[in-house]
Amino acid sequence: MTEEMETAPHVEKMPLRKGAWSSEEDQKLTDYIKRFGIWNWSQMPKPAGLARSGKSCRLRWMNYLRPDIKRGNFSNEEEETILKWHQVLGNRWSAIATKLPGRTDNEIKNYWHSRLKKRSKNNLAPATVSHTAKESDIEVNQNDLSGTDPKGSNLEQLFTDEYDLSSSSSDPAVETDRNQSTVENFGSSKTFEELQNLWEQPFSLEECFCMVETDPGFMAPTGAVWLQEQIYPPSISYDGTGNEFWDVIKVNSHV
DNA sequence: AATGGCAGCAACCGCATGACC
DNA sequence: GGGTCATGCGGTTGCTGCCAT
Question: Rounded to the nearest 5°, which phi and psi values hold at A230?
Protein backbone atom coordinates (compact mmCIF):
# COMPACT_ATOMS: atom_id res chain seq x y z
CA MET A 1 0.00 0.00 0.00
CA THR A 2 1.34 3.36 -0.89
CA GLU A 3 0.90 6.83 0.36
CA GLU A 4 -1.05 7.79 -2.77
CA MET A 5 -3.62 5.20 -1.94
CA GLU A 6 -4.65 7.31 0.90
CA THR A 7 -5.71 10.13 -1.34
CA ALA A 8 -9.12 9.79 -2.84
CA PRO A 9 -8.99 9.87 -6.63
CA HIS A 10 -11.08 12.98 -7.01
CA VAL A 11 -9.06 15.01 -4.56
CA GLU A 12 -7.05 17.52 -6.45
CA LYS A 13 -3.34 16.82 -6.40
CA MET A 14 -1.27 19.52 -4.85
CA PRO A 15 2.16 19.59 -3.31
CA LEU A 16 1.83 18.34 0.23
CA ARG A 17 3.61 19.97 3.08
CA LYS A 18 5.75 17.82 5.33
CA GLY A 19 7.55 18.35 8.57
CA ALA A 20 6.61 20.31 11.62
CA TRP A 21 3.17 21.81 11.87
CA SER A 22 2.80 25.56 12.19
CA SER A 23 0.41 27.05 14.73
CA GLU A 24 -1.65 28.31 11.82
CA GLU A 25 -2.04 24.79 10.48
CA ASP A 26 -2.95 23.54 13.93
CA GLN A 27 -5.59 26.21 14.18
CA LYS A 28 -7.03 25.37 10.78
CA LEU A 29 -7.31 21.71 11.58
CA THR A 30 -8.76 22.32 15.01
CA ASP A 31 -11.26 24.82 13.70
CA TYR A 32 -12.32 22.50 10.94
CA ILE A 33 -12.86 19.56 13.26
CA LYS A 34 -14.67 21.79 15.71
CA ARG A 35 -17.07 22.77 12.97
CA PHE A 36 -17.52 19.61 11.00
CA GLY A 37 -16.16 16.81 13.09
CA ILE A 38 -14.04 14.00 11.73
CA TRP A 39 -15.64 12.59 8.64
CA ASN A 40 -12.92 11.48 6.22
CA TRP A 41 -9.26 12.11 6.87
CA SER A 42 -8.30 11.78 3.24
CA GLN A 43 -10.65 14.45 2.04
CA MET A 44 -10.57 16.80 5.00
CA PRO A 45 -7.29 18.62 4.36
CA LYS A 46 -8.50 20.47 1.28
CA PRO A 47 -11.69 22.00 2.67
CA ALA A 48 -9.77 22.69 5.86
CA GLY A 49 -7.28 24.70 3.82
CA LEU A 50 -4.36 22.43 4.60
CA ALA A 51 -1.71 21.23 2.17
CA ARG A 52 -1.21 18.07 4.20
CA SER A 53 -2.01 14.45 3.65
CA GLY A 54 -4.98 13.08 5.51
CA LYS A 55 -2.62 10.79 7.28
CA SER A 56 -0.59 13.69 8.53
CA CYS A 57 -3.72 15.48 9.70
CA ARG A 58 -4.94 12.43 11.53
CA LEU A 59 -1.63 11.93 13.26
CA ARG A 60 -1.44 15.55 14.27
CA TRP A 61 -4.95 15.47 15.69
CA MET A 62 -4.55 12.14 17.45
CA ASN A 63 -1.16 12.86 18.95
CA TYR A 64 -1.28 16.55 19.65
CA LEU A 65 -4.44 18.53 19.00
CA ARG A 66 -7.07 16.32 20.57
CA PRO A 67 -8.57 18.14 23.55
CA ASP A 68 -8.25 15.15 25.85
CA ILE A 69 -4.51 14.81 25.44
CA LYS A 70 -2.65 14.89 28.70
CA ARG A 71 0.60 16.76 28.36
CA GLY A 72 3.62 17.02 30.57
CA ASN A 73 5.82 14.55 32.35
CA PHE A 74 4.80 11.02 33.07
CA SER A 75 4.07 10.35 36.71
CA ASN A 76 5.69 7.48 38.57
CA GLU A 77 2.40 5.67 38.50
CA GLU A 78 2.19 6.06 34.76
CA GLU A 79 5.72 4.77 34.38
CA GLU A 80 4.89 1.72 36.42
CA THR A 81 1.78 1.15 34.40
CA ILE A 82 3.74 1.25 31.17
CA LEU A 83 6.37 -1.10 32.50
CA LYS A 84 3.82 -3.55 33.79
CA TRP A 85 1.69 -3.60 30.69
CA HIS A 86 4.69 -3.78 28.43
CA GLN A 87 5.59 -7.02 30.14
CA VAL A 88 2.16 -8.32 29.29
CA LEU A 89 1.47 -6.83 25.90
CA GLY A 90 4.91 -6.26 24.46
CA ASN A 91 5.17 -3.47 21.90
CA ARG A 92 1.45 -3.10 21.45
CA TRP A 93 1.57 0.59 22.19
CA SER A 94 -2.00 1.37 21.33
CA ALA A 95 -3.16 -1.29 23.77
CA ILE A 96 -0.87 0.06 26.45
CA ALA A 97 -2.17 3.55 25.73
CA THR A 98 -5.65 2.44 26.74
CA LYS A 99 -4.29 2.00 30.25
CA LEU A 100 -3.17 5.60 30.37
CA PRO A 101 -6.04 7.93 29.53
CA GLY A 102 -4.86 11.05 27.81
CA ARG A 103 -1.59 9.54 26.68
CA THR A 104 -1.07 8.58 23.07
CA ASP A 105 0.56 5.44 21.77
CA ASN A 106 3.19 7.57 20.10
CA GLU A 107 4.00 9.36 23.31
CA ILE A 108 4.23 6.11 25.24
CA LYS A 109 6.36 4.55 22.55
CA ASN A 110 8.75 7.50 22.59
CA TYR A 111 8.88 7.48 26.35
CA TRP A 112 9.62 3.80 26.35
CA HIS A 113 12.45 4.05 23.86
CA SER A 114 13.98 7.10 25.46
CA ARG A 115 13.72 6.20 29.14
CA LEU A 116 11.96 3.07 30.23
CA LYS A 117 13.69 0.65 27.90
CA LYS A 118 16.95 0.94 29.76
CA ARG A 119 15.21 0.81 33.09
CA SER A 120 13.27 -2.23 32.04
CA LYS A 121 16.45 -4.01 30.96
CA ASN A 122 17.99 -3.38 34.35
CA ASN A 123 14.87 -4.35 36.21
CA LEU A 124 13.63 -7.38 34.37
CA ALA A 125 13.04 -9.32 37.53
CA PRO A 126 9.34 -9.31 38.42
CA ALA A 127 10.14 -8.28 41.97
CA THR A 128 11.11 -4.86 40.73
CA VAL A 129 7.63 -4.16 39.57
CA SER A 130 5.96 -2.22 42.32
CA HIS A 131 2.75 -3.58 43.69
CA THR A 132 0.53 -0.62 43.20
CA ALA A 133 -2.39 -0.32 40.85
CA LYS A 134 -3.85 -3.29 39.02
CA GLU A 135 -1.34 -5.78 40.26
CA SER A 136 -4.01 -8.43 40.14
CA ASP A 137 -4.56 -7.69 36.48
CA ILE A 138 -0.98 -8.43 35.68
CA GLU A 139 -1.03 -11.69 37.54
CA VAL A 140 -4.12 -12.81 35.73
CA ASN A 141 -2.69 -11.73 32.44
CA GLN A 142 0.54 -13.55 32.89
CA ASN A 143 -1.24 -16.73 33.86
CA ASP A 144 -3.59 -16.53 30.95
CA LEU A 145 -0.90 -15.68 28.51
CA SER A 146 1.62 -18.30 29.42
CA GLY A 147 2.60 -20.09 26.26
CA THR A 148 0.11 -18.24 24.13
CA ASP A 149 0.22 -15.64 21.46
CA PRO A 150 -0.53 -12.29 23.07
CA LYS A 151 -2.85 -11.55 20.19
CA GLY A 152 -4.73 -14.79 20.65
CA SER A 153 -8.11 -15.58 22.00
CA ASN A 154 -7.00 -15.84 25.61
CA LEU A 155 -6.08 -12.23 25.57
CA GLU A 156 -9.35 -11.36 23.99
CA GLN A 157 -11.18 -13.15 26.73
CA LEU A 158 -8.97 -11.52 29.28
CA PHE A 159 -9.80 -8.04 28.06
CA THR A 160 -13.44 -8.83 27.77
CA ASP A 161 -13.49 -10.12 31.33
CA GLU A 162 -11.49 -7.28 32.66
CA TYR A 163 -14.00 -4.64 31.67
CA ASP A 164 -17.04 -6.84 31.77
CA LEU A 165 -18.42 -5.29 28.65
CA SER A 166 -20.13 -7.27 25.98
CA SER A 167 -18.19 -7.12 22.78
CA SER A 168 -18.22 -8.63 19.35
CA SER A 169 -14.88 -7.26 18.27
CA SER A 170 -12.09 -9.66 17.49
CA ASP A 171 -9.42 -7.15 18.35
CA PRO A 172 -9.01 -6.75 22.10
CA ALA A 173 -6.82 -3.73 21.72
CA VAL A 174 -9.35 -1.89 19.64
CA GLU A 175 -12.21 -2.89 21.81
CA THR A 176 -10.60 -2.02 25.10
CA ASP A 177 -9.64 1.28 23.61
CA ARG A 178 -13.20 2.02 22.69
CA ASN A 179 -14.66 0.80 25.92
CA GLN A 180 -12.16 2.12 28.32
CA SER A 181 -11.79 5.51 26.78
CA THR A 182 -15.53 5.83 26.79
CA VAL A 183 -15.86 4.87 30.41
CA GLU A 184 -12.91 6.83 31.62
CA ASN A 185 -13.72 9.96 29.75
CA PHE A 186 -17.26 9.97 30.93
CA GLY A 187 -16.35 9.37 34.51
CA SER A 188 -17.16 6.47 36.70
CA SER A 189 -20.63 7.61 37.67
CA LYS A 190 -22.23 6.37 34.48
CA THR A 191 -22.69 2.80 33.45
CA PHE A 192 -21.83 1.71 29.95
CA GLU A 193 -25.49 1.12 29.25
CA GLU A 194 -26.33 4.64 30.28
CA LEU A 195 -23.66 5.95 28.03
CA GLN A 196 -24.92 3.89 25.16
CA ASN A 197 -28.37 5.28 25.68
CA LEU A 198 -27.01 8.77 25.70
CA TRP A 199 -25.12 8.07 22.56
CA GLU A 200 -28.13 6.72 20.80
CA GLN A 201 -30.41 9.59 21.66
CA PRO A 202 -31.76 11.19 18.51
CA PHE A 203 -31.10 14.78 17.70
CA SER A 204 -33.46 17.08 15.94
CA LEU A 205 -33.05 18.07 12.34
CA GLU A 206 -33.07 21.66 13.45
CA GLU A 207 -30.09 20.99 15.66
CA CYS A 208 -28.31 19.32 12.82
CA PHE A 209 -28.65 22.22 10.47
CA CYS A 210 -28.09 25.07 12.86
CA MET A 211 -24.52 25.37 11.77
CA VAL A 212 -25.35 25.53 8.10
CA GLU A 213 -27.68 28.39 8.77
CA THR A 214 -25.41 30.35 11.00
CA ASP A 215 -22.12 29.86 9.25
CA PRO A 216 -21.79 31.60 5.88
CA GLY A 217 -18.50 29.82 5.27
CA PHE A 218 -20.00 26.44 5.79
CA MET A 219 -18.59 23.83 3.47
CA ALA A 220 -20.35 20.58 3.97
CA PRO A 221 -18.53 17.33 3.49
CA THR A 222 -20.14 15.00 1.02
CA GLY A 223 -22.98 13.09 2.58
CA ALA A 224 -21.69 9.63 1.78
CA VAL A 225 -18.79 9.89 4.14
CA TRP A 226 -20.13 12.42 6.56
CA LEU A 227 -20.23 10.02 9.46
CA GLN A 228 -17.63 7.53 8.55
CA GLU A 229 -15.79 7.87 11.82
CA GLN A 230 -17.04 8.53 15.27
CA ILE A 231 -14.16 8.78 17.58
CA TYR A 232 -15.76 10.62 20.42
CA PRO A 233 -19.04 10.06 22.09
CA PRO A 234 -21.20 13.06 21.49
CA SER A 235 -23.10 15.36 23.80
CA ILE A 236 -20.74 15.29 26.73
CA SER A 237 -17.81 17.62 26.94
CA TYR A 238 -14.52 15.89 27.39
CA ASP A 239 -12.94 18.44 29.62
CA GLY A 240 -16.05 18.94 31.64
CA THR A 241 -16.27 22.57 30.74
CA GLY A 242 -19.29 22.12 28.56
CA ASN A 243 -17.72 24.09 25.77
CA GLU A 244 -19.38 24.11 22.41
CA PHE A 245 -16.73 22.03 20.76
CA TRP A 246 -18.30 18.74 21.67
CA ASP A 247 -21.74 20.05 20.95
CA VAL A 248 -20.63 20.49 17.38
CA ILE A 249 -19.19 17.01 17.31
CA LYS A 250 -22.56 15.83 18.55
CA VAL A 251 -24.37 17.59 15.75
CA ASN A 252 -22.08 16.16 13.15
CA SER A 253 -22.31 12.71 14.53
CA HIS A 254 -26.06 12.43 14.38
CA VAL A 255 -26.99 13.74 10.97
C1' DA B 1 31.12 31.88 22.44
C1' DA B 2 31.44 27.85 19.51
C1' DT B 3 30.51 23.20 18.68
C1' DG B 4 29.82 18.39 19.05
C1' DG B 5 27.17 14.77 21.22
C1' DC B 6 23.07 13.26 23.00
C1' DA B 7 18.19 12.83 24.42
C1' DG B 8 13.51 13.76 23.63
C1' DC B 9 9.88 14.26 20.73
C1' DA B 10 7.08 15.11 16.50
C1' DA B 11 6.32 13.36 12.28
C1' DC B 12 6.90 10.17 8.46
C1' DC B 13 6.81 5.63 6.29
C1' DG B 14 5.37 1.15 5.24
C1' DC B 15 2.51 -2.52 6.34
C1' DA B 16 -1.77 -4.71 8.16
C1' DT B 17 -6.53 -4.78 8.54
C1' DG B 18 -11.29 -4.08 7.71
C1' DA B 19 -15.10 -2.17 5.01
C1' DC B 20 -17.13 -1.71 0.82
C1' DC B 21 -18.10 -2.57 -4.01
C1' DG C 1 -13.00 -13.76 -4.27
C1' DG C 2 -10.48 -9.84 -5.67
C1' DG C 3 -9.67 -4.93 -5.97
C1' DT C 4 -9.83 -0.43 -3.91
C1' DC C 5 -9.82 2.66 -0.27
C1' DA C 6 -9.56 4.52 4.57
C1' DT C 7 -7.72 3.94 8.86
C1' DG C 8 -4.73 2.14 12.55
C1' DC C 9 -0.39 0.60 14.16
C1' DG C 10 4.56 0.07 15.05
C1' DG C 11 9.20 1.11 13.54
C1' DT C 12 12.10 4.60 12.19
C1' DT C 13 13.83 9.12 11.01
C1' DG C 14 15.17 13.66 11.65
C1' DC C 15 14.71 18.09 13.93
C1' DT C 16 15.43 20.74 18.08
C1' DG C 17 17.10 22.01 22.37
C1' DC C 18 20.14 21.05 26.13
C1' DC C 19 24.51 20.15 28.09
C1' DA C 20 29.36 19.25 28.43
C1' DT C 21 33.68 20.50 26.71
Answer: -125, 95
